[in-house]
Records
---
Amino acid sequence: MEKDYFKTYPNKEGFFKEYGGSFIPDELQKEMNKINDAYYSISKSHKFISELRSIRKHYQGRPTPVYYCNRLSEKYGGRIYLKREDLNHTGAHKLNHCMGEALLAKYLGKKKLIAETGAGQHGVALATAAAYFGLECEIYMGEVDIAKEHPNVIRMQILGAKVVPVTHGLKTLKEAVDSAFEAYLKDPINSIYCIGSVVGPHPFPMMVRDFQRIVGIEAREQFLEMTGELPDKIVACVGGGSNSIGIFSAFLDDPCELIGVEPGGLGLTLGKHAATACFGKPGLIHGFKCYLLQDEKGNPAPVYSVASGLDYPGVGPEHCMLKDMNRIKYVTISDKECIDAFYELSRMEGIIPALESAHAVAHAIKLAKTNPHSSILVNLSGRGDKDIDFVVDKYGLPK
Ligand SMILES: *Cc1c(COP(=O)(O)O)cnc(C)c1O
């Protein structure tokens, strides 16, 4: 990669080569410019950085460990390691950027955090951050996801957030983003929009990436200390792309293979999956340019995955650039492979993964079978407690 990669990408307008940018109405652009300016001045200050570091250590429980999977590696070959983001407070990597976004909101004097959520993980993380800083919190969530991720809905409400059901369209993540944007535009002075991944208009893909870089920085150091080498392959699931860019970003200049795992769902025909980097074509969604699963008219296509947190028809602009540069490779894992891996990790290691993360585990198992001498580092983006009722109801326990 170029020297100064992180200062070069994105450029001032928010572009990662041709992807990203900001394609939004003028009134929203004005607000984004303010967030952008604040981000550059505040987030680089010593005060902000030391407060964030203290929160990570004393509140979130960072660094999260890197764990060697004894039994899984023995069974399938290879050496499989997990970066345990499931042990980050609230049970997923999302708190990494939520605490950053909320801290920025505090410095800006905002009173309310607004966001969308898919699986509910971003909503829970943001509601947690809001409680920590004493801010109001409003979370937009598709009705379909509300039904599927009931425990997370309750969690947000316990934390004091208002959960607003989104009832139009497919009633999932994409519609929830639309509704959250609308709500934000109604009161941009007192509120701030906190996106859930490395997507949306500039500066969000950059901000969220920067806040998630801690995952890779820790993992690289921990892996080196544990093994004396770097991992051969690093595997992470890709929804919008935040946990994956978080871990990959520390290894861009290393001779490590970086593999993003997308949801293959029920089959690789349009509508049955959400494998955007694999099968999308450049297009626009939610104010930025990226690979997009689209219909003949160029509108975002319906997408599906067993993992609510992965069913988004777009993908972070930095991923699109790194795909074009052949630095990250993208593959798919089907619902069935995901469920098998969900049970396999639970029973072999005593770790119940989030359905999102189980996609990465499934691919790591595949790689281990064919690469017996490789070390494979998986970003275990979250824990699966939120998914247990759904999985057992729908698929039953394994024989
Ligand atoms: C939201 C979520 C994802 C997907 O989002 P990314 O931005 O692609 O990381 C993955 N894993 C878990 C546990 C999640 O909650």
---
Amino acid sequence: LHVQGNIIFTPIILDIPLSCSFPNPCKELASHLGLDPSFTGLFVFDVGGKDWQFYDWSKVTTIATFGKYDPELLCFAHSKGVRLVLKGDVPIVDIVDPANRTAWINNKVTLAKKQFMDGINLDIEQEVNKTSPEYWALTALVKETTEAFHREIPGSQVSFDVAWSPNCIDNRCYDYAAIAESCDLVFVMSYDEQSQIWNECIARANAPVNQTLMGYDDYLKMKINPKKLVMGVPWYGYDYVCMELTQKNVCTIAKVPFRGAPCSDAAGRQIPYKTMMKQINSSMSGGLWDDVQLAPYYNYKDIKGNIHQVWYDDPHSISLKARYIKDRGLRGIGMWNGNLLDYSNDTVARQQSTDMWKALIPQEIPLVP
Ligand SMILES: *[C@@H]1O[C@H](CO)[C@@H](O)[C@H](O)[C@H]1NC(C)=O
Ligand SMILES: *[C@@H]1O[C@H](CO)[C@@H](O)[C@H](O)[C@H]1NC(C)=O
Ligand SMILES: *[C@@H]1O[C@H](CO)[C@@H](O)[C@H](O)[C@H]1NC(C)=O
Ligand SMILES: *[C@@H]1O[C@H](CO)[C@@H](O)[C@H](O)[C@H]1NC(C)=O
Ligand SMILES: *[C@@H]1O[C@H](CO)[C@@H](O)[C@H](O)[C@H]1NC(C)=O
């Protein structure tokens, strides 16, 4: 745990405001700095390092920090009125007991206060059976975490990450309606949508437009308030080795079972957007577009001669999904994760990264912070 007083800032690139200097930096909560209500709710996952310097700070409203605690990031975020939230993950079996649950929550609240953070993102992607003890405990965890944070850190935000659809994806049979009701927002992870392939074992898009939007339709059908839903889009794709590639670019993949399904995207490898952008122009196929899934892909041959098919999201496919936010009045959008773009000084890479940030808000839709 960092002790604030021991941190010495070296604000070379950033214009760190005086309020962030030694000895008691960033005391103010972002929520106290006043967020512009016309801001798009843009929820960014950050996994560490200094890429955050290159984020589009005119749009970001929340950063969930999944990397090491970085007081420089905290100060900068607060200077922009942006919330910084902790990561929360715990084996569900450990919090079925109410006393253990309270202990876990108190621990997180204490940590958040020590670090001057503005809330927590609960990222618990474990299997849960409907109406099992874990099912009730998980909902209680969300409710009690939200109550504790709101009480101890006024204006703080508690969010919960859910699968692309509420239909027991990967055996995550949670009480989604109650969970959404119990926290400030749910981040819908609209990716890894081929984690359970029940039909043909072939490479498909990470987040096909139609499948993605059907997931939101299903959440809304449960009477979840659209203002609780943040759309999560992937800034990564999947690289599959093809057992066979047909003339029509159908790539058969190895059968890797996952949580009861015979076949899964676990047969592929997750690849950052920046990696694919360096590879695509020299690939076998060049950039291709699938008119049904509304997603880009390409084929390439590796040094051993194996053929691969790579599926990903680009500004076009992302903007097709992001439109739904305005149509249905969702709270906002976000991505896994902010670090997957190329923020180097290369002109082409810079433009590609700028375009990815822009695609999140196609028509600069006003959303809820
Ligand atoms: C619950 O808390 C008790 C007391 O601290 C501890 O002994 C026990 O191991 C905990 N149980 C779980 C499942 O974490
Ligand atoms: C869910 O129930 C099934 C069938 O009873 C069982 O095999 C499985 O272990 C359970 N999973 C969890 C996470 O409790
Ligand atoms: C999306 O999927 C639904 C259900 O399978 C289907 O009815 C609809 O036509 C599809 N829309 C598009 C644009 O493919
Ligand atoms: C790939 O080709 C496109 C189209 O010719 C070009 O605009 C882009 O800059 C190229 N990308 C890289 C990384 O060179
Ligand atoms: C990028 O350019 C800026 C300003 O031109 C320079 O200060 C910085 O060191 C460069 N970064 C890299 C990684 O080359």
